TrEMBL record:
The keyword Nucleotide-binding applies. One of its GO terms (molecular function) is RNA binding. It comes from Pleurotus ostreatus. Its EC number is 3.6.4.13. Pfam families: DEAD, Helicase_C. Residues 345-493 form the Helicase C-terminal domain. This is RNA helicase. GO terms for cellular component: cytosol; nucleus.
Amino acid sequence: MEAFQLLSRGGLNFDKKRFKNDVRLFQGSASISVDKDTQETDGSELPAELDFFKYAQGGSTSKRKAPSKETAQSKKRKLSPGPDEAAAQSLVAKQRVTAKGSEVPQAVETFEELGERYGLSNQLLSNLSKNGFSTPTGIQSHGVPILLNSRDLAAISPTGTGKTIAYLLPILGALKTPNGKADGSGVRAVIVAPTRELAHQIHNECLKLAEGRKWRIVLFSKATASTLADKSVRDKIDIIISTPLRLVVSLQAGTLDLKNVRHLVLDEADRLLDAEFLSQTQEIVAACSRTDIQKAVFSATLPAGAEKIAMEMLHNPIRVVVGLKDTPLPLITQTLTYVRDDHSKLPSLLQYLAQPYNPPLLVFTSTQPRASSLAEELVLNNIPNVDCLHAGMTKKEREDAMSRMRKGESWVMISTEVMARGMDFKGVREVINYDFPTSVQSYVHRIGRTGRAGREGKAVTYFTDDDAPHLKTIANVLLQSGSTVPEWMLKLPKPSKMKRKSMGKVKRAEVVNSARKIGRNDAIKKRDMVAGSKRRAKKPAAKDESKAD
Ligand SMILES: Nc1ncnc2c1ncn2[C@@H]1O[C@H](COP(=O)(O)OP(=O)(O)OP(=O)(O)O)[C@@H](O)[C@H]1O
């Protein structure tokens, strides 16, 4: 990690001349899969599908030059849909939706219908259109009316299909006026997400949707938690967005109460209801003690066990499933690539990165040390703009890495499960599972970082001999979502229930290049010897000092 930090601090500097082909690639002009007619840029602009700058807090697209004249190309663009329009069409295209429950409210076709039927304010509707949301996606069409009818909801919709707006919109619609003017006092809505990064992203989305109204929307952190310890401040808060632990710490310290909460959303619900988070989630649910509280759970995946817990938590819920449960969108082209063993993965990845690829690229490893080690190896192999993000890094390091990713400064982001869920970087076109995922759910969420908002994506998963027993499970996911799978993979035996639990959990070295370990061990030995002899040399001097005292 040290070498990596040293080389990449503040984003890696690289020689733009030397990597001019890569620069062109990043700017869209050398991309092999993009229609040239729709990709013309003036060099200062990023192509629309890479334009995730606007999602950075405080970021804005307005500073970038607007094309002054209507060119032949831009005229042509109006005739045939460009990549963004095509993506939007594909995002809102009719998907199979099943809604089960009693008295299911009718879905809406347009956002305007929400205004007519539920009195959703013009301000909210105009904020939707300002953010480019002109037509509701499947989960928005069905989920928003359900929530606006004060019903509990279990929503399962594929990655990148707009679940965030599906719960934020009805919450803001139902809250109507900012706290203080409304009845009662205290926090009125809580949104829980499993990672800090995701909570931050939801907060940003919420601020954009709430623009123009003085709702108090708080991203719960150590600092905001201490401000909110003051009840008079807390009483004015409308919405809190938080990770579970942060809420639990404040609840246990008695510096937060959730007795006035009317809307509770669990985003990435199956993660929040798994063994690691369950007790914290239950504590939060129990603290939201209003009898008329509305609860909703959202995820792209909801395995049977988690669904059972969720359904027991909800009151007379409606269950909405968009597409096929636990299945990625067909927009993502998926492949399974054989690499003989763990040591063969690095050369395979380096070879992959030597070909033209679509940055930014997300690479998933199984552990924090492996993520750091892989990032370090790529930097040492002169791969430009490598970044790393995992939960073992400090808050500042994580924030910096996120910011570089959002600004488009990271071309290759190495990460762990921490980035697998919910993170929305529209520009991510390729995902590589360097280490095999630990479950179907992990696979679906990881590859779901691409193919978002109706765009196309590509996912490559490396498998070794050790992963072979689990290959059929993932091959079935590929098949179900329309990717091609070699015949022999489908003929593999089905793993037993016991075996399935061990998916992706093979023992792997902490460093991805064990040759490096040899040199590193020698260096550590040498460093310890030098430190030891320095200590010994210092000892008599220290004694002398104490005598002088
Ligand atoms: N109605 C809409 N029209 C166009 N774009 C939309 C619409 N709703 C949401 N989006 C965009 O789609 C992208 C994905 O949305 P979001 O992050 O909410 O997906 P998600 O379903 O929560 O995915 P995940 O399961 O990975 O968390 C975002 O960039 C969002 O701005």
